[in-house]
TrEMBL record:
Residues 2-98 form the Kinesin-like protein Kif23 Arf6-interacting domain. Residues 1-20, 95-138 are annotated as: Disordered. Pfam families: MKLP1_Arf_bdg. Signal peptide: none annotated. This is Kinesin-like protein kif23.
Length: 138
């Protein structure tokens, strides 16, 4: 049996997307070439593939839907079945740009960031040390 290298990308995947998952209509969708798409994994699909991915959706703490791609390798067992060993989790999150984020803006930690120069309070010159003033050049 001729075996191709893994870098050639000839691996077959089982793409498990449960029927309860929502279609989010996002631009960036995970596309897996050479995949057998199933809503419930079965022995027939797992026997033909070397890789497995589960698309799991859950509600994030900020109310948005977060999709996790849980990846794994499919192994043959002694009893003639298949087992999946999970190896990696990728998180995909969609955010609404109109909802303010919890991240702090550069500026003050308590209040909103001020961007107008006219609204800023005048700042004292702290660069001079020990009371010496800079000389102006004529």
């Amino acid at each position: 049996m001729h075996r191709r290298s893994r870098s050639a990308g000839g691996e077959k995947w089982v793409d498990h997307k449960p029927a309860s998952n929502l279609d989010l209509d996002t631009v960036m969708q995970p596309i897996i070439p050479n995949a057998i798409k199933v809503s419930t994994p079965n022995e027939k699909a797992l026997s033909k593939c070397h890789k497995y991915v589960l698309r799991h959706q859950e509600l994030a703490s900020d109310g948005e839907i977060e999709t996790k791609l849980i990846k794994g390798n499919v192994f043959k067992t002694r009893g003639g079945g298949q087992a999946v060993q999970f190896t990696d989790i990728e998180s995909l999150k969609q955010e609404c740009p109109t909802v303010p984020s919890r991240k702090r803006r550069s500026g003050s930690a308590e209040g909103p960031a001020q961007t107008d120069i006219e609204n800023r309070a005048p700042m004292a010159n702290t660069s001079s040390s020990h009371g010496y003033q800079k000389r102006r050049r004529p």
